[in-house]
Amino acid sequence: SASKVVESFVFVLDATNGVDLGTENAWTFMKKEKIGGLLVISKMKRENIDYEKVVADIKNLLSENATMIQFPIGQGPDFKGIVDLLTGKAYTYAGGKRTDIAIPDNIKSKVYSMKKELLESIASSDENLMEKFFEDNLTQEDINNGFLNAVKSGQIYPICFTDSIENIGNDLILDTVTNYFLSPSDIQSRKPITASDKYPEKADSSSPFAGFIFKINVEKHIGDMNFIRIFSGTLKSGVEVFNPEKGISEKVNQMFISLGKERKEIDELTTGMIGVLVKLKGSKTGDTLCDKNLNAKFSPIDFPHANVAMAIVPLTKGDEEKISNGLSKLHEEDPSFYFNFDSEVKQTLIHGLGIIHLEVVIAKLKEKFGVNVSLEKPRIKYRETIKKTASAEGKHKKQSGGRGQFGVCNVRFEPLSRGTGFQFGNEIFGGSIPAKYVPSIEKGIKEALTRGSIAGYQVVDLKATVFDGKYHDVDSSDIAFQIAGSLSTKAAMPLAEPILLEPIVKVEITVPEEYMGDIMGDLNSRRGKILGTEHAGRYQKIRATVPEAEMYHYSSQIRSMTQGRGMFTMEFETYEEVPRDKITRVIDESKKYQEEQENK
């Protein structure tokens, strides 16, 4: 969400890990917004690092426009200083203090080579500079201005080096940000996806107002704190603005500037500023606020897909409402997780990016809302179906004085292809059952199909056709034929060769090539079917289908197998028959669950 509201970024890489899969994914988010930035290789004093390899990986995997603007003096435990290639000055650090030094003799030739490479990169961004470069006439002013323009346009992504624990290079990074990053006054107007013709080409504080809510924090005594970036105009306390996504007006009451835990109340926010609005009635993360006649909408935030689901269980009876309210508030803070109550499995499910993500949400639930919960394995939504056609009669007859109950229906059940669902047919001719009772028969059949004959799971992918029956002028009724329809279903199911179905998910796994064998073997052990593989840079993508029951805790397991360098996506694909050796376990789990429900 931060990438939506900034003009520049600082991208920090760990010198010990270099460019990993998470780095590439984060870089993709930043590149999508077409903004410039700085790459920082941190932890330079760690053992066994190779900064040249990290730089090469940055160029190969992130951007060929990445260019060193500093040269490290030493690496690993010997890292003690930096040469600034833009100015030609060298510095060492001791006790957090910087000292100017001459460039050490043992790296002079390398520094000269790297500076020439940097100057060529700067000159490449402008024809006039390129001409001066070849004539060896570049001045320091040319270098500074050319570098500034190249960074702004994304033609150069500078690479710097630091070690935060020893405080080496942090000051130079701040200088680079101050001197070469865009300021709010430099930027062109952020373009909305829709707006009236009044939206300005170049925004300033006098332009019509438009801003974007990119984050929400929930604080106990304040409520929702809506973080907003002002893209155009001025927002003043006390005014009314429009939310085009929700179609509502919002009264702006209190506004703050937030610096860490400190907040300063202010009366207005101008173009380029980031502030906090409180007590908005309906605006959420990803919403635009603007002048009503502007009707601007900025592109929404693309949150990553939630791959993992767990059941959430209160440790204190009666906390269900507090849990729901707390999760709703936390979802406003972090829309990449969501929750829902699944009426079929009778569990509240929380969905996130991984088990650690969900544990963080649960910790916040306790900290902010005082609710203790545990995470449990979610129930799998098995299904049942039939493999052959069968017919049965359903007869309901009851006489207990006065008007009785009578209904008879003959129903044929036929298997359908996977994913078809339920179909109903009526082949009654000659008035054996009046047409007005046929919907009741269908209703009774559908009700009976909610609990199959094998393990009590919903029965799917079949067609039920009523083809004959009997009725009584006085005793027949809707309820009688509804019961008859249910009885015909229960009688036919054992005759139609019922089977259990399990949900199958489609997974796409991205891992470094050296882990391919482990991942493939693990998928096979989970009854997975490999659909194919393909190269993705240094990584391999594996596409497979796997029973959902075998994917429990997979996010933790893939992290363990790949030392945190693997990622996966997962989505429902289809249902397939449960293997014979797994049926008993499914039936036992279902019986245990039903007994628990009955004893509640």
Low-confidence runs:
none
Integer tally of domains: 5
Please tell me the overall pLDDT. 90
CATH topology of the largest domain: Rossmann fold
Biggest sheet descriptor? 6 strands, antiparallel
Under the CATH scheme, which architecture of the largest domain would be assigned? 3-Layer(aba) Sandwich
Overall 3D shape: elongated
Task: State the helical fraction.
Answer: 25-40%
In short, what is this structure?
The protein is an alpha+beta fold. The protein starts with 7 loop residues before the first strand and ends with a helix.
Question: What's the helix and strand layout?
Answer:
Layout lengths: L7 E7 L6 H12 L3 E7 L8 H12 L3 E3 L1 E4 L7 E4 L4 E6 L2 E5 L6 H16 L3 H8 L5 H14 L3 E5 L8 H11 L29 E10 L3 E10 L1 E3 L3 E4 L4 E4 L3 E5 L2 E5 L1 E3 L3 E5 L9 E3 L17 E7 L5 H14 L4 E5 L4 E6 L2 H15 L3 E4 L6 E4 L3 E9 L6 E11 L6 E5 L11 H11 L13 E9 L7 H15 L5 E15 L3 H10 L3 E8 L2 E9 L6 H8 L5 E11 L2 H20 L1
Parallel strand pairs: 1-2, 2-8, 3-8, 26-27
Antiparallel strand pairs: 4-5, 5-6, 6-7, 9-10, 9-18, 10-17, 11-16, 12-13, 14-15, 14-17, 19-21, 19-22, 20-21, 23-28, 24-25, 25-27, 28-30, 28-31, 29-30
Features:
600 residues, alpha+beta, Rossmann fold, Elongation Factor Tu (Ef-tu), domain 3, Alpha-Beta Plaits, 5 domains, 6-stranded antiparallel sheet, 5-stranded antiparallel sheet, 13 helices, 31 strands, elongated
Walkthrough of the structure:
There is one protein chain. By secondary structure, the protein is of the alpha+beta class. It has five domains: 2-182, 3-Layer(aba) Sandwich (Rossmann fold); 188-302, Elongation Factor Tu (Ef-tu), domain 3 (Beta Barrel), CATH 2.40.30.10; 308-376, Alpha-Beta Plaits; 384-496, Ribosomal Protein S5, domain 2 (2-Layer Sandwich); 501-582, 2-Layer Sandwich (Alpha-Beta Plaits). The protein is 28% helix and 33% strand. A six-stranded antiparallel sheet has the order 15-14-17-10-9-18, with helices on one face. Strands 23, 28, 29, 30 and 31 form a five-stranded antiparallel sheet that branches. It has a four-stranded parallel sheet with strand order 1-2-8-3, sandwiched between helices. It starts with 7 loop residues before the first strand and ends with a helix. 36% of the residues are buried. The mean pLDDT is 90.
